[in-house]
Amino acid sequence: xxxxxxxxxxxxxxxxxxxxxxxxxxxxxxxxxxxxxxxxxxxxxxxxxxxxxxxxxxxxxxxxxxxxxxxxxxxxxxxxxxxxxxxxxxxxxxxxxxxxxxxxxxxxxxxxxxxxxxxxxxxxxxxxxxxxxxxxxxxxxxxxxxxxxxxxxxxxxxxxxxxxxxxxxxxxxxxxxxxxxxxxxxxxxxxxxxxxxxxxxxxxxxxxxxxxxxxxxxxxxxxxxxxxxxxxxx
Length: 234
What we know:
By secondary structure, the chain is mostly helical. It folds into 2 domains: 82 residues; 139 residues. It is built from 5 helices and no strands. Helix 1 packs antiparallel against helix 2 and helix 4 runs antiparallel to helix 5. The longest helix is centred in the middle third of the chain and has 90 residues. It is rod-shaped. The two termini are 29 Å apart.
């Protein structure tokens, strides 16, 4: 907390002028009052002296008041006011930075979910391409060649924590993803699949891939809407 004494006019010429003016005004007023009090029992006898002192002290009060006012005015305009403006500018910058930091924090959460949705879409597309490539060239479908999608659990967790508005959508996506995995799992268990089973495998996988891609696109659109709304609230 700032010391109130640090704002007193004692550290430059303008403040010295102000203090001098205050001192002159107070001294002048005190001189007249003290004389009146001194001669209170016999004012008429000292009328001449009081008549002389009165305009002098009044002039002293007037000069002191003007000098004090001028000193304080110059001090404020040339020293304190620029300082106040600098402090205000720094405060506005700090507020803007705080707002930006909070906005970035909100956006980073949405960005993480967006990236995880993109990873899921790429993962499903890779599996579908693997299905079509292996079966189309007469090879045995090898799911082990497809990298695992370890970020899927993180996606569901981030949606639950940060965007509960999308919980129902992620549940629909989850159901499609599980169905896609079931299609692959059931086909892998077939020792010698027929040509029809191979064809059904490719068709079902491709259909589910398109459904998943569509659902992810829908989720990204809703995510963008939530992100825009959050930056307006921050």
